[in-house]
Amino acid sequence: MRKIEIVGFKRETLGTKSAKDLRNEALAPCVLYGGKDQLHFAVPMILFRDLIYTSEVAEVELNIEGEIRRAIIQDAQFHPVSETILNVDFLEIVDGKPIKIDVPVKVIGNAPGVQKGGKMVQKLRKVTLRGLADNIPDFVEADITGLDLGQTLKVSKLKVENVTILNSLSNPVATIDIPRALRGKLNN
Which residues pair with 5 in a beta bridge? Predict the structure, then answer.
């Protein structure tokens, strides 16, 4: 996983009014949990640009007033109209304790079905993995090299080492659809 550092400061007061005041100052209220204690802090919203608004996964090195902690983003809430960040929840990475995280799926290879005129449709954009943080990959490769017209690559065919895939193994990852024009030719 790629690593990103975020610098923040502890929150003195908690509650709705305090969180609203922070947001008015372009600060996002945050909470870190999953470790030995919960930590409430605030971070400038601009620092989330490379973390939230991307499909890539990242490990976050939180620097809260000099105290360094490793974490991942567990959840982020946004305002329904303005899309500003309302709150961000971080899950602390504890050595030896597995984490659960969504990782993007990257389709690789050339399918014979596409070369015959079929259309590759990616059905699953992310898979949920559980494992130690050091074993979590940046993405999971889905090799479609062997797919012909009408065939599907399922989650069970994905190869990831030292982690567990939590999605149903029968879920489709990618399919080679047969276009309507080609269906008529195949039936004749």
Answer: 61
